Amino acid sequence: MRIPKGRRLFALAIALDLSLLGLVWLALRYPAAFEEIYTRGFFAWYAETAGWLSDRIPFSVHEAIGLVLFLLVLRATARFVLRLCGRRQARRRGIGATLQGIFVTLSLAACAFYLLWGLNYFRPRLVHSSCFDKGLVTVERSTALAQNCLSALIALAGTACPPDRILAEEMQTCVHNAMRLIGDRPLATAVRVKYFLGGWLSALPSTGVTLPLLPENHVSLDLFDYEKPFIIAHEKAHLQGRAMESEANYLALLACLSSEHPSIRKSGVFFLFRMLLRTLPPGERAHLISLLPDEYRQDLRAPAIRLAQKSAFVVALFQALYGNFLKAQRIEDGLANYSAALTLVLGFRLNSGQTLAIDGRGRLVRETE
């Protein structure tokens, strides 16, 4: 007896879903072994191989795939409408086939996402490592670091951002340096930075996105110059297998602060200063802001102004969907995980044995004094 093609695909989708659940269980049950086999094994090989190919394709592969999928959805919708207009039995078959097609498509997409990148959500986290000391996370240390950031920002005022043509390669080098600082082996991932869907990313309250099929970094077209180094480094950290937003932010800070370019260091110091401000008492926060040069005070307001110009409905929908997605990956604080990078800044000991520290020019202090 010949099994219909639709049922074979349905059975394959169920088998893939069960296999994915098994991999997640193994990742949670044996985290160290899973990291060695998946993150440092299969994922490292795939990220380097596919990244090499991605760099040789000048356009966004995901943009092309998205366009094809959009056309296929239109075609499927048209066929579904035609079936609904047919006889009752045809309508039942049409609804069943459509639901089955949606299930198979979502299953294949989920399995591809997790296998090629998403299983990194279940790797051991930096805050659970022996290098992290929660006792170092104090308001006093936040205040002292914020004052150091203020001095560095004043010293770095007026520095110009490197041109876009060299920024991607420079941030690749910086991210590799950051990986070594936390004791990870850097991966030779895609270097090129692409602008997703010709600027459609700019309609969302998101400045960048990492997509896994052919690992690509995408950033928004409406980034300010001071944001570009940090945002690019954040997305490149995701390609290194650091899925947590807090860890990607932390690595982006290390990457920027380890650069020889003053403007790249300024980007890292500014983002760190902004994180620190949120932890300070209102009076101390207002005092530090009052000491900033005018260019930085404008930069502090700029992201809020940009967000206010976007559709409130789109912003709310995106935040709800992505926040719940993060919680589904066992990131209990959801979107707040971005700010949790400050916990790593204050409490994670680098290879030097000390936590993140900067000098008066925003350079990362690498040796224990």
Q: Can you walk me through this structure?
A:
The chain is built from 13 helices and three strands. It is an all-alpha fold. The longest helix is centred in the N-terminal third of the chain and has 29 residues, at 88-116. The termini are far apart. The mean pLDDT is 87.
Would you kindly provide a brief summary of this structure?
With 369 residues, the chain is mainly α. It is 62% helix and 3% strand.
Order of helices and strands: HHHHHHEEEHHHHHHH
Number of strands: 3
Q: Supply Rg.
A: 23 Å
What are the low-pLDDT stretches, counting only 5+ consecutive residues below 50?
A: none
Shape: globular
Taking strands numbered 1, 2, ... along the chain, how are they ordered across the largest sheet?
1-3-2
- Strand coverage percent: under 5%
Termini separation: 77 Å
Q: SS-based structural class? A: mainly alpha
Oligomer: single chain
Q: Report the helical percentage.
A: 55-70%
Sheet with the most strands?
3 strands, mixed
**Can you give the mean pLDDT?**
87
Summed up, the helix count is 13
Write the layout of secondary structure elements.
Blueprint: H1 5-29, H2 31-55, H3 61-84, H4 88-116, H5 139-156, H6 164-181, E1 193-194, E2 208-211, E3 216-219, H7 228-239, H8 245-257, H9 262-277, H10 282-290, H11 294-308, H12 312-328, H13 341-347
Parallel strand pairs: 1-3
Antiparallel strand pairs: 2-3
Give me some keywords for this one.
about 375 residues; mainly alpha; three-stranded mixed β-sheet; 3 strands; about 60% helix; globular
